[in-house]
């Protein structure tokens, strides 16, 4: 026969363990990049700020943009023929077909200087 005392003691142990697991869940998830928006996710999956987190290998957050680049400009790749060749594939009745011009696209792209310089994920 199981005593009430032993059952309460077991339940207390289970509740304590559950509380510890729930409390530590925040730290465990941080190690897999559930970072706040103002923190970077390091190459090892930890949240923080500074070079170790936001520099080389940064997986997400406000990562530092790589310096320099490969010297290729988007405007050299996205020529008029390339841009309008894609845009003209939309049906003629599509309202968004002429929503952007190439110049408007390139101007909007200037708002995101690190676009194409950062890679998050696997190839």
From TrEMBL:
The keyword Disulfide bond applies. CDD domains: ChtBD1. Residues 30-65 form the Chitin-binding type-1 domain. Disulfide bonds join 35-47, 40-54. InterPro entries: Chitin-bd_1, Chitin-binding_1_CS, Endochitinase-like_sf, Lysozyme-like_dom_sf. Pfam families: Chitin_bind_1. Belongs to the glycosyl hydrolase 19 family. Chitinase class I subfamily. This is Endochitinase EP3. It comes from Sesamum latifolium. The lineage of its organism: Eukaryota, Viridiplantae, Streptophyta, Embryophyta, Tracheophyta.
